[in-house]
Amino acid sequence: MANAALYGAVRRLPAPKSPSPGWGYWQSDSARLTCGTLRLFQSLSVPIPRHLPCALLLCSAGLAGTVHAEDLFLGEELPEVLTATRLKQSPAAVPGSVSVIDRSLIEASGARDIPELMRLVPGMMVGYTSGNQSTVNYHGGRVSEARRLQVLIDGRSVYRPGLATVDWSDLPVALEDIERIEVFRGPNTVSYGANALMGVISIITRSPGDTLGTRIKYTRGERGIDDWYGSQGFASENADFRLSVSGQEDNGFDHTDLDYKYRDSRRSTRMQLSASHTLDLNQSLEWQLALKEGSNQRGVYSNEIALISGAVPVIDNSRDVEARDYAGSVRWALDVNPNHSVQVQSSLQHWQRKQEWSACDLALSFTPEVRQLFSEDPDKLDTVSRLLRRGNGALIPGWGAYFGAQHPLAVSIYNYSIDPSGAYLNPVCGDLNNNIDETRFDLEIQDTLSFSDNLRLLSGASYRRDRTVSETYFGGALENDVWRMFGHLEWYLGEHWVLQGGAMFEDDKLAGSSLTPRVALNYLITPRHGLRFVYSEAVRSPDMFENDVRWTYRLENVSPQVDGRSYADYYAYANGPGNLEQEIMRSREIGYNGQFDFGLRIDIKLFNDEIHRMISEPLKITDFAPSNENSMWMRGAETEIDWQILDSDRLRVTYAYLKDFESSEKSHGRLSARYSGSAGWIRNWGHGWNTSLFYHGADLLNERRFERVDLRLAKRFRFGETELELAAMLQQRLDDEALTWRENLYDDRRVVYASAQLEF
Known about the structure:
Elements: H1 2-11, H2 30-43, H3 52-60, H4 71-74, E1 98-102, H5 103-109, H6 114-117, E2 124-130, E3 133-138, E4 149-153, E5 156-157, E6 178-185, H7 189-192, E7 199-205, E8 213-221, E9 226-235, E10 239-250, E11 266-280, E12 283-296, E13 321-337, E14 340-362, H8 368-376, H9 378-390, H10 399-403, H11 408-417, E15 427-433, E16 436-452, E17 455-470, H12 471-474, E18 476-492, E19 497-508, E20 512-526, E21 529-540, H13 544-548, E22 550-559, E23 567-575, E24 583-595, E25 600-614, E26 619-620, E27 623-624, E28 630-645, E29 649-663, E30 675-686, E31 689-698, E32 706-719, E33 722-733, E34 750-759
Domain TonB-dependent receptor plug: 93-200
Protein name: TonB-dependent receptor
Organism: Pseudomonas mangrovi
């Protein structure tokens, strides 16, 4: 009993480094943690475990960095997760469900981007709007919009402030630089603020100290796959650095359901510089710079704002998106004493999207009557547009009789169309754009304090400033300020019971204030096995685009000029309501997490989630009417099994079952598979040979079945200090469906690519 109580006290010691998602957190100063643990033993009048004298000797020799506290008790390190509460906790004590995709799993999967890795997470739905536009949803939602997940890279949110989306194809991080991805499956506004409504994906990059030396990798394959990566890690007396550069390219889907060539290729180049400084025994400083540039093709679509599409020649339909992203972050951590640590983190990010194209439309589209008719009776204008389209931009028999004197504006438009000069049926051409610049500044302070062996408090405050500039979407600049205060209390009531509670107060200048709580009770059968009972609430603030948009298209450099002007405003426009309320989610969860001594890890989750005041309407310029009148309710179960069998085999199975799903908006269910999951077998055959086999499946993704088998074969060669890995990857679809949308089609259901990686 005494040893069990001691173990609980050790597990509740504060982390020696900043307990916040960030690069290199996993490599925190284990020496101080271990020696602090030993000092705790020395201060207690209980029998000392048999490993303690050896560890004391290591501490005195300054070598305790190689010893883990859990090794003193169990002979095997107990894993820890961080994303749930910002505190390091054993999986059995976490107030929620967390999936961890570690470095070995990332490599074995053969995935080329993060959305494909999310197929390994139970309940996570991966869809594609096009080849370079992927979406990730937890439990489902609208196919083309994924706005209810918070995504972090080393603690820095990459959830764009203006259009409230995550550009998965444009994240400024290479898979080769990622140490692990922690996915908190459930609402977590308590720890990360609004927009962590349904979950948090925390991407944690590798510590510069663990990537010293040179790495070069090249991947080539079918569908235009052409990826490359290179990094150089180096060290000084008190600091480690890593500079990495990488590129990614592929052709996207091959053709549409109408057999048209698809324009959805992607090309990107990334650079990341990471550094970790040890200032003294109690202080550390880490900083990071990241750059990304690239282009994403956009397919040839009809212009939704054109009065008549296809009746006049189009100069340029490409509409490719040029993307440039810049990010910098810095984190300072101080261990005030063994029971108290402070962290300050700040980041500055800039997203630049440039999308420009040329288009033509009838001069009739730019008359005041057309704009007024769109404002008063868009259905009537749609009728006018369809009649013009049927006549290919000319009159059709009986058009005047159809309108007669029923609608004065329609009659005026009709009179324009029969003007003897024909000027209003002539094409007017010019330049349009969807350009947008978004900037975010974040400053956060976090404090971790252990009041006793049984009680820990994490608290903090942050300030965020968002600025978006777009003439098309906002008629200029729009700014927002967000203040936050948060806290999480962890209280060990005894040897088996852990009570946890937390709350986040957030004041958003555009969306108002909110207070979200979470309370959880964990029953630890042993330190490695626990039951959890969790109730939490979360919110999502309406984003700038939903609530405050001033969306209009201005045709610049028009020819011929309209009323003597070199520009003309399209009739279609959309204004945000400005009074949308926050979405609110209530979640109830019962779960079990177990870590067995023979390498088996199991997590089981039963959930009952409901979302109210949902903003679910399609956000189109010709149909823009967001409201808080929708709701969604989900109930089901998930499980994740990960079994490391000796050093040779690893088995991993995930499964999600959505028993009940109800939504006031039908489209929410389209990316909500009732059954989904994955199964994988990773095998080390010895002599440098490794294989991995994965199955991914879902019964309905946008009403389409998805099944795929991935096979990877790799061989490592050693030449002194140099290591070469050659790998081949096969992905084979087992279904004959389009991917997410009916136009997303490949010529072949199989794709093969290979890679070569050199480390020295």
